[in-house]
Amino acid sequence: MLENGKPRKRRQLSPEEKWEIFLEVTSQEISQADAARKYGVDVSVIVRLRALAKDAALAAFASAKPGRPASVQDVEIELLREENDRLSEALKEMAVELTLHRGRQRSGFSARSPRV
Question: What is the pTM assigned to this prediction?
Fold first, then answer.
């Protein structure tokens, strides 16, 4: 993004700021767009932060067996499995889009070229 004709520096949020943003947005004190403006980040950062917090909480709940504390390694493995599942789904969607795009090109119709 450009700000006053210059590229805007990336803002690094501290863990405490991320937690504060998560609490504010989750409790509906502030919208995602307002939080992004307040903390000087893109809305996608807020969306990703909420998804990360949800995934971490779900992994912690899933690994919490009654009478047995979860190891850090088990939680990390669960998070990596969930990320792998998300990335696999994204890859499948992109493969379908690419197949559809290539099919349109072979049929002679392209979004780039006007119809005659």
Answer: 0.49
d(CA 35, CA 15): 15
* Gap between the Cα atoms of 101 and 99, Å rounded: 5
Each residue's pLDDT, cut to its tens digit, for the chain (116 residues) gives 455 666 667 778 899 999 999 999 999 999 999 999 999 999 999 999 999 988 888 887 877 777 666 677 877 888 899 999 999 999 999 999 999 888 877 666 555 555 55
58-66 LR contacts (CB < 8 Å, sep 24+): 58/82
The domain locations on the chain are 2-106
- For residues 20 and 46, the answer to whether their CB atoms sit within 8 Å is no
